[in-house]
């Protein structure tokens, strides 16, 4: 089916209390593993790209790969731009066919984050696509953004409520709730109270960043608490590299590239399917598509 905006998908997911996986694609093989893995489980899926990835391949190639993959399956697929602070990049993604974008103004003071998010919102509304916005400081490394351990800060409840009041039609809201990008070194301390109170007060589907390494129980509690979009990047990168190089480890004489790519695809797809099952979105393709705009 054609690419669709994640906004109606996430609304349905929040109402149905399941999470839609949002994987950070790396190249065509990775995008294919994400889309086809979801299709095998009849699950809705979000393919997202970091700014770095988009700049590496170019806007049109990324958009056309994901569009063609979406058209070859029968499940709803959204193409999303992850953490972006640059309005020019956002505009170019909109022009190239992205169906949602994230404006990350979390490093800005509240008033500036709100003002810029409203500016991006006007652009996304005009284009008929979804917007994700962030508040607080999610720890870890994502793209070129580094938030050191001591600098990670939970979102402020009152600010979240005030922010969402001004932006009631966000596709998804990303308050920092204690999760972090990258592999966790210790046990993440998730602020479930904050998550639940923000989700309840605003009614907004919530994005869970830093999904790699969380336990099934943590996913369950976050999804029950209002998370509808679950981001996975680090584990997908790991499967991408490990799936490829392990071929040579096991068969040092292998000199044909296609077996590497095939093995890498299977490794990524296995992880995609594990996560889709963990978030409860297997079999939800029709449900998620029911409210498509
Ligand atoms: Zn993130």
TrEMBL record:
CDD domains in UniProt: TBP_aldolase_IIB (cd00947)
Organism expressing this protein natively: Dongia sedimenti
Pathway assigned to this chain's UniProt record: Carbohydrate biosynthesis; Calvin cycle
Keywords per UniProt: Calvin cycle
PANTHER family: D-TAGATOSE-1,6-BISPHOSPHATE ALDOLASE, D-TAGATOSE-1,6-BISPHOSPHATE ALDOLASE SUBUNIT GATY-RELATED
Pfam family, one: F_bP_aldolase
Name of the featured protein: Class II fructose-bisphosphate aldolase
Domain of life assignment: Bacteria
